[in-house]
Specification:
single chain; 15 helices
Length: 314
């Protein structure tokens, strides 16, 4: 456990620094937005590209890894939505968002820093394989369900094809996905990165993790924990406990993946609900209070759950 604390506390210390900087207005909202753009447009793609360009991938497609992670994710999403609908008596669009929060984790800002720092670049391979399809699966399903359930009067709902095209377009334009795809393609060519290019990428990539953590902390100031705490507590429980537990059971006992892959997939599933949940909730006006509360509550509670989980794996 002390080893896990020495890993987790510095990471959450940087998050706390970002929170304090934004709360005290030492960094403005526009400054946070600019740093966020830098992280997702330059630093994180550079980190992903550089790691993937030098990563040896498995010879066969990792179906067990994908089924373990995404099967568990869709299961908690479905159960969370049903609880919101029939137990919490929420409207159907709210139920979609609350279920979405049960499966959508902060994989980039928090997942990558914790897993790569704690378990080395070798743990990046299963993480990158999961992230390659993370956006398109999550956001396409979420948009389809939200478009299906939102009140629209006499307006015709968009077709599934239109929603799928929007999801694919957004995924193709996502700099993180571009970094992943480019790194995989370049790595398969077997050509080492030129020294000057590698050095430049290394400098930018080195800033990705601390900047991402700082931005995460600063963005938490935009959300409140006092809105719909009951619904947020249910979503947090499913995200931090049920989702990683299901991934671990499937990866360890059903598909019998190698230990490092089990660790990486389980920890990725154990990340708190990401800020995109609140962004999507505000866009569709579907449980925005519960979504913002979940982001803050799950991030705070994850200090404890991640410390325990990392301690068990270490």
């Amino acid at each position: 456990m002390p080893v896990a604390l020495t890993l987790v506390l510095p990471i959450f210390g940087v998050i706390a620094l970002g929170y304090a900087g934004a709360r005290s207005k030492l960094i403005s909202h526009s400054g946070v937005d600019g740093l966020d753009t830098y992280v997702f447009t330059f630093a994180m793609p550079a980190l992903l590209f550089r790691n993937l360009a030098d990563t040896e991938f498995p010879a066969t497609l990792p179906w067990g890894l994908w089924f373990s992670y995404y099967g568990a994710m869709l299961a908690v999403w479905a159960v969370g939505s049903l609880i919101a609908l029939y137990v919490l008596r929420r409207p159907s669009s709210d139920a979609v968002i609350l279920g979405f929060g049960c499966g959508q984790g902060n994989t980039i800002m928090l997942g990558l820093p914790i897993i790569l720092t704690g378990f080395g670049p070798e743990a990046g391979t299963p993480v990158f394989l999961i992230l390659a399809f993370h956006g398109i699966i999550l956001f396409t399903i979420a948009m389809f369900l939200l478009e299906l359930t939102r009140p629209r009067g006499d307006e015709e709902p968009p077709s599934f094809g239109a929603i799928l095209r929007e999801g694919l377009t957004n995924t193709a334009k996502n700099p993180v996905i571009i970094g992943i795809a480019s790194g995989v393609i370049y790595g398969q060519m077997g050509v080492p990165l030129p020294g000057i290019v590698d050095s430049a990428l290394e400098m930018v990539a080195r800033s990705a993790i601390p900047c991402a953590l700082f931005v995460l902390g600063a963005m938490l100031t935009r959300y409140s924990i006092r809105r719909s705490v009951g619904a947020a507590s249910v979503t947090t429980f499913f995200k931090l406990i049920v989702h990683p537990a299901l991934v671990f059971i499937m990866a360890q006992y059903v598909f019998e993946l190698e230990p490092l892959w089990v660790t990486a997939a389980t920890l990725l599933a154990a990340m708190p609900t990401g800020v995109y949940s609140s962004i999507l909730a505000n866009r569709y006006q579907a449980a925005p209070g519960a979504a913002s509360s979940t982001v803050v509550l799950s991030t705070g509670v994850s200090i404890v759950t991640l410390t325990i989980l990392i301690g068990l794996f270490l």
